[in-house]
Amino acid sequence: MKTPILETERLLLRSFSMDDAQAVFHGWENDPDVAKYMFWSSHNEIKKTIEWLIFETGKEDADDWYRWAFVRKDTGELIGTGLIYLEEEYNKYEISYNLSKKAWGNGYTTEAMKEIIRFAAEELNIKEIVGRHAIENPASKNVMTKLGFQFVKNIPYDCNGGTKTYEGKEYIWKRQ
């Protein structure tokens, strides 16, 4: 299934294109504060962001991988990304998200992920979704809590391509 366009009050959620490389690179991929808790390493050159976009746009028609670009409706600015995908190791769907530092603290991630979870539940009939975060990243915990995720257990949380492991927490969302 092709990743559909979704909308919230303030955001347009759309697929990525190769035209997004500069905005992604400068928005969050090259920012060590944003990249600190990402699974992959921060991009130190635009070439890595282009490679990431090639991978993401190649997944566009997958039925187990849905990635959106978060675009502000009022400015047209690309400010972040959200993903729901089938984590094969656990055979459960998992969410992930990143937001440009200048957009932090405005509720954009919660707003976007709420719509992504609605899509997953209603259109894909997903009944459970996992979310994970590093303990040192309380903003991610706040997003999951606002979305109705419940704490499951403490876990190791790998970042930066597996070169850094933090103490983490795992949460689960269950369809009502």
From TrEMBL:
Coiled coil spans: none
InterPro entries linked to this entry: Acyl_CoA_acyltransferase, GNAT_dom, N-acetyltransferase
SUPFAM superfamilies in the cross-refs: Acyl-CoA N-acyltransferases (Nat) (SSF55729)
UniProtKB keywords: Transferase
Pfam families cross-referenced by the UniProt entry: Acetyltransf_3
Stretches assigned to the N-acetyltransferase domain: 11-176
UniProt KW NAD keyword: no
Highest taxon listed in the record's lineage: Bacteria
GO molecular function, one term: acyltransferase activity, transferring groups other than amino-acyl groups
PANTHER family noted in UniProt: GNAT FAMILY, PUTATIVE (AFU_ORTHOLOGUE AFUA_3G00765)-RELATED-RELATED (PTHR43792), N-ACETYLTRANSFERASE DOMAIN-CONTAINING PROTEIN (PTHR43792:SF16)
Name of the protein this chain belongs to: Acetyltransferase (GNAT) family protein
Taxonomic classification: Bacteria, Bacillati, Bacillota, Clostridia, Lachnospirales
